[in-house]
DNA sequence: GTGGTGTAG
DNA sequence: GGTTCTACACCAC
């Protein structure tokens, strides 16, 4: 087993130095001395394990070298989304509130539950039951994700053995914290008689301090209570906890007393606890499919599962699954708590009633992609794979299975993926459209009700060419007075937090409000903070004439000329950013994402902004040019827009995303001189109409760009494209500074 | 090793 | 079935 770089090298909290600090700050907290950063001390050996779903974990950090009774805590935030929303909108406190995604209520607070509202109820139904209910759309998970990671981080202050189950649930293995505390309170092996259980005990079972298992669980309950207190002090959210000898049981009992309570399960009550479940489906680890198959076997109760012949079960479900769920039915679960670190993939998806046109598919894919690119930029890692998932409804048969296709991301595109949407959106959309066409015969009628875009195989960019915004970038920067980048330094701790998405200071350094800093990361998205408010420092919400729905703070972050453009657009009834009630929200969202301008352009206009390094235009294949691994049987996309300005007449293909340079070529061809308002000469292969519809400033930017490119030594790019290696081309002098380019609004570098 | 699908929470 | 994610096992190639 190996510790991930994240776990050991990048996480200062697990260093010895930090342990000493932790001891000072919180004397009751056990030191984390089983993870030693010194090279002489080998990392703890982990056992391959499996979680409740049967997934094995080769990189578990469970330390099997320490004997003793396991104590696992499961913390489940109480109606998480609703709590977050009440925190963000204190005026909603005490009112019935539900959070919905599309037409479904996904969670609601206890006031709404009192009215009969429940999860997975339609919004319509919920409002009928409770007309005064506050309804909040929870489709944008950004805030929830932020707070969720903050909570995990707070828990990691106790121990590194924290496993995120989902946004609002964590498992914590506190076995070693318990052992430490035991050593501290037990003098000469004698346990004080005043050991108690914090919170409820399952079945009101009496604690027996003569039983070392009871003592450990009791101490565990105290640690769990402290964890809940830390969470509440840190983010003002309450949660319920379960304390038990394994993950399965901890999860089962955490929900018994809610909200803001906890339950400890003593070993003698395990069988009672399991038998209290009315159906196998209630066992975490037995999902709807498995439960259905059990139903076919006539197994509809825990007792039925426990007593069913294992060999028959194995025949039907396979040996592995059968044995696993059979053991689960007895409350046995030896799976380890696995700190997984950063997510292995980032995805975004959207559902809709029906989508049957390619244009709409493209638009939705682009929206998902831009949203994902922002998260990716913040993450700092680079994906090697992109995946498109769809759910379609055929005319003959309604089915809900998902289908997906994926492909590697071309190297040169991968390297640019974190620099800004201009560089990558269009080629990535083209890739995704190809993947879509790989699944759907677009020549016939199709209906799609879900689209999901996923970046997978996330890797750190090499330190040799770190991407700004990534941890790698900061680690290679030498800034005066901040040279402490040692594994134990607080700078590193902050970097970790930046990666996590909360830029606020260390606990203890910042005692301000619970949500402070949660949104601060947005300021740095796409490098907008590099060009910031000093452009127009006096602007305020009251005098800005901003269109409704635009966040003043975000607006102030924008360059002055863009601010003017927005105001001008707002005052014009024909402005591109004109808002209707629905559009207001998307405008704000886009502003927050820093992509509003890009999105306000037509596709053809955007293509003009594609930087020269990435090109989707067709190029004759070359042996030394990396190619995207999409089967050539894909139907070629006869997209005329792509062919515009192409080097040759080949049909556009995903495979042809090459670093050659559409704009570079534009700058090198003999230009037809056109007379347009604000115009100089524009390249012959630029549609004058498309160009003329661009905002004047963009026209000027492009003209300047083209003019500059004309100073680049002339060369036959069509030939060059097939000869020059990608890396060499990436470093070619054609890469013009973006300081005066509209691209600066999108690029941080 | 890669890609597609299914299961799970 | 309904949402929005994230993760991983298993299988085919």
Please provide a written account of the structure:
There is one protein chain. The chain has 749 residues and is an alpha+beta fold. 37% of the residues lie in helices and 12% in strands. The protein is built from 29 helices and 16 strands. Strands 8-9-3-11-12-10 form a six-stranded mixed β-sheet. The protein has a four-stranded mixed β-sheet with strand order 6-5-4-7. α5 packs across α7 and α25 packs across α27. The longest helix has 24 residues. The radius of gyration is 29 Å and the shape is globular. The protein starts with 15 loop residues before the first helix and ends in a 19-residue tail after the last helix. The N terminus and C terminus are likely disordered. The protein binds a DNA duplex (9 and 13 nucleotides) through β2, β8, α10, β13 and β15.
How can the largest sheet be summarized? 6 strands, mixed
Tell how many strands the DSSP assignment holds: 16
Share of helical residues: 25-40%
Oligomer: single chain
Strand content: 5-15%
Question: How does the SSE layout of this entry go?
Answer:
Blueprint: H1 16-25, E1 49-50, E2 56-57, E3 72-77, H2 80-88, E4 97-101, E5 104-108, H3 110-114, E6 121-122, H4 123-129, E7 134-137, H5 142-156, E8 162-166, E9 169-173, H6 175-185, E10 200-201, H7 212-235, E11 239-244, H8 247-254, E12 262-264, H9 270-275, H10 288-296, H11 302-307, H12 310-317, H13 319-329, E13 345-355, H14 358-379, E14 382-392, E15 402-408, H15 411-416, H16 421-439, E16 448-459, H17 471-475, H18 490-500, H19 552-556, H20 560-571, H21 581-593, H22 596-600, H23 603-609, H24 640-643, H25 662-668, H26 688-692, H27 696-709, H28 717-723, H29 726-730
Parallel strand pairs: 4-7, 10-12, 11-12
Antiparallel strand pairs: 1-2, 3-9, 3-11, 4-5, 5-6, 8-9, 13-16, 14-15, 14-16
Helix pairs in contact: 5-7, 6-7, 12-13, 14-16, 25-27
The protein binds a DNA duplex (9 and 13 nucleotides) through residues 51-57, 100-104, 106, 120, 122, 138-139, 141, 145, 164-167, 169, 284-290, 320, 340, 343-351, 385, 387, 398-408, 452, 454, 629.
